[in-house]
Amino acid sequence: MNLRTEIVIRHIGLVLIFNAIFLFISFLISLFLVETSVIALLYSSLVALIFGLFPLIYVKPTHYLSILEGTSIVVFGWIATCLIGSLPYTLWGGEFSFINAWFESVSGFTTTGSTVINNIEALPKGLLFWRSSTHWIGGIGVVLFTILILPGSNTSRFVLLNTEMSQLAKTNFKYRAKEILRILLYVYVGLTILETILLKFAGMTLFDAINHSFATIATGGFSTKNLSISYYNSVTIEIIIIVFMILSGVHFGLTFNTIIGNKKNIFRSSIFKAYILILFIGVLLVSLKLYYSEIYPWWESVRHAAFQVVSLGTTTGFATVDTGHWPSFTQIILIYFTIQCAMIGSTSGGLKFDRIYIFFKSIKKQIRSIQHPNAVISLKIDGNSINEKTELHAMIFIILYIGIIFITTMLLSFLNVDIFTAFSSSAATIGNVGPGFGNVSSLGNYSNLPDLGKFILTLNMLLGRLEIYGIISLFFIKSWR
Question: Which of 164, 194, 209 is the last residue of a domain?
Answer without folding.
Answer: 164
